[in-house]
């Protein structure tokens, strides 16, 4: 729980994490209730989607309504039998076009930064108001998990999910006070090893845990190297997987009541 968070000028940093990112909504609900508006929003992947919605002025309840519609996988998944990914972006592009229209990064009510990774050279790319880029395009770049979603091309460069370089974008925060929500933080993995009867389940859980540990350690490095005053929120997401969109109500609740 984050107590005595009284600052008015702060960066809100929202991590990636697939369905786990729905926990961001609980935090947004608390901020909205307290009439706290961030001075900027930095988002990666799912945190970028939710952050972008907030940045254009959507209320938490309106964002949650979209997420609930999003929880029906058939509404946004179109399987692909060619290319480098299992999901074709066609349906999800339609959803983002409806949400953001032709708004560009410079047209948000709250300054927005979205983190993606250049898949050809591995470099981090941060889309900001200085870029003449549509919000929907920057989102399709930041959420493009390699092998799952199609890589996304912007201005001739090929981009993938921002988690590959910085899942929790604290290093991109402009303000000295930072409220960072990490759904793939220390509370996202068990402290023991899987012990299922079926080996296949153990292998699956070990792979999932390994990915979470890798991302967690990456984020910890960025936090330790930061000179900002970081208020870190790590919702307890370990009971859920990154595709548990159908459990949106339970996951949203994980972020509630943390900011006081």
General form: globular
The helix/strand series, from N terminus to C terminus, equals EHEHHEEHEEHEEEHEH
Termini separation comes to: 7 Å
How much is the radius of gyration in Å?
Answer: 17 Å
Characterize the main sheet. 8 strands, mixed
Instruction: Work out the number of β strands.
Output: 10
Helix content range: 25-40%
- Helix and strand content put the structural class at alpha/beta
Tell me the fraction of residues in β-strands, as a range: 15-25%
* Count of runs of 4 or more consecutive helical residues: 7
Secondary structure elements and their pairing?
Blueprint lengths: L10 E4 L8 H11 L6 E5 L1 H10 L4 H11 L7 E2 L7 E2 L1 H11 L11 E7 L5 E4 L7 H8 L9 E3 L2 E5 L15 E5 L17 H26 L4 E5 L14 H6 L7
Parallel strand pairs: 1-2, 1-9, 2-5, 9-10
Antiparallel strand pairs: 3-4, 5-6, 5-8, 7-8
Helix pairs in contact: 1-3, 4-5
Description:
The protein is of the alpha/beta class and 260 residues long. The protein is built from 7 helices and 10 strands. Strands 1, 2, 5, 6, 7, 8, 9 and 10 form an 8-stranded mixed sheet that branches. A two-stranded antiparallel sheet has the order 3-4. Strand 1 (11-14), helix 1 (23-33) and strand 2 form a beta-alpha-beta unit. Helix 1 (23-33) packs antiparallel against helix 3 and helix 4 packs across helix 5. The longest helix is centred in the last third of the chain and has 26 residues, at 199-224. The protein starts with 10 loop residues before the first strand and ends in a 7-residue tail after the last helix. The model has no long low-confidence stretch (mean pLDDT 89).
């Amino acid at each position: 729980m984050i107590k005595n968070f009284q600052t008015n000028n702060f960066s809100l940093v929202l991590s990636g994490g697939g369905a786990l990112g729905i926990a961001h909504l609980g935090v947004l609900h608390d901020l909205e209730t307290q009439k706290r508006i961030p001075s900027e929003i930095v988002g990666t992947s799912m945190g970028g989607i939710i952050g972008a919605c907030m940045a254009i002025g959507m209320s938490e309840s309106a964002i949650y309504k979209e997420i609930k519609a999003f929880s029906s996988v058939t509404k946004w998944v179109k399987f692909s039998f060619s290319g480098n990914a299992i999901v074709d972006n066609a349906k999800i592009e339609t959803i983002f076009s409806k949400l953001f229209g032709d708004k560009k990064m410079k047209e948000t009510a709250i300054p927005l930064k979205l983190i993606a990774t250049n898949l050809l050279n591995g470099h981090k790319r941060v889309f900001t108001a200085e870029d003449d880029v549509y919000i929907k395009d920057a989102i399709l770049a930041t959420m493009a998990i390699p092998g799952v979603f199609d890589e996304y091309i912007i201005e001739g460069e090929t981009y993938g999910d921002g988690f590959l370089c910085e899942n929790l974008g604290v290093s991109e925060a402009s303000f000295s006070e930072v409220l960072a929500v990490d759904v793939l933080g220390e509370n996202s993995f068990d402290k023991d090893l899987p012990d299922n009867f079926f080996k296949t389940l153990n292998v699956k859980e070990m792979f999932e845990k390994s990915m979470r540990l890798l991302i967690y350690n990456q984020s910890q490095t960025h936090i330790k190297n930061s000179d900002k005053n970081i208020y870190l929120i790590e919702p307890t997401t370990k009971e859920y997987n990154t595709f548990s969109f159908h459990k949106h109500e339970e996951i949203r609740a994980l972020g509630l009541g943390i900011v006081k």
